Amino acid sequence: MGKAISAALVELIEQKHLYQSVEIDAVPLRKLASPPASHIPKYPPMSGEDRDVAKLLTQYLQGPWKLSLERELPPVYVRQTGPKPGNLFLLPTVKISCAKCDSVKPPHNPAYVGLTVDSTNVLTMNDGAIEIFALPYQCQSCKCEPLFFLVRREGLKLMLVGRSQFQEVAVPDFIPKDHRKFYRNAVIANQTSFTLAAALYLRTVIEQYFYKTIPGTEIKAIKGNPTGDELAELYAKTLPKNFPSSFPSLKKAYVDLSKIIHSGKEDDETKKSFEVIRNAVDSHFKAIQLFKEMPI
């Protein structure tokens, strides 16, 4: 169980963004708890009690958790704290970007060795306890102020609900410099599940790039405000003659982003569509950068 919690925390902190969650895998424990009572393995007595796997699993689900810093205790340690049981687990080391130094994803260790992280309040529901933890992590490269992650636990579900420092968003160097702020905002909006805003920001990157690249005289020749299709057609004429047609098109990306905006949806399917479009936009700008660097 301790290994499962550790793996879930690593995935949550390293790979997930605000308000995204992971589910701790309790299948192995449930399988141990499901055989007939005569076959359920018994743990050694703890605090004068004989606890079987089923009771221990219930304790994991409904009882409060205490998260220990890495050098303080072994990976799994169950102890009695007063009249109510408390489950003490090891906090894992994670690898994340540091906002204070130039290191790329240095190891971050749980800070303040000797401190046990308790939740401030425990709300017991039918499906298990609800707790909020503030987990401190310190960069092992610069040793600066620890980064605190606010994690909400509901039974075996962990959700990232806050950070003491905003996550660094690295914009690829192939994105045109003048439009990187909109690209960064698109990434942030998508990470926080505001997919409609993400689509609008990314479409703005394309639109502003059109205006920057297309000769002004050609834009002025269009009566009224030019549409996205008209700008895309003019932009296509600016591409190198040997630019492969197989590369993703900014015109298609513009149209697809408009569809997301007009749909008014922010579900999982929309998020997947946005990621596909973003990858296509990245591929186009990568190709543009490559052709600029190629000798004539």
What does this structure look like?
Helix 4 (180-191) packs antiparallel against helix 5 (195-213) and helix 8 runs antiparallel to helix 9. The chain has two domains: 2-163, no CATH class; 177-293, no CATH class. Strand 3 (76-81) and strand 4 form a beta hairpin. The chain is of the alpha+beta class. Helix content is 39%, strand content 20%. It has helices at 2-15, 27-33, 53-62, 180-191, 195-213, 216-220, 228-236, 250-263, 268-293; strands at residues 21-23, 65-68, 76-81, 84-90, 94-95, 107-110, 116-118, 122-125, 128-139, 147-154, 157-163. The chain contains nine helices and eleven strands. The chain is elongated and about 80 Å long. Strands 1, 5, 6, 8, 9, 10 and 11 form a seven-stranded antiparallel beta sheet that branches. It has a four-stranded mixed beta sheet with strand order 3-4-2-7, with helices on one face. It starts with a helix and ends with a helix.
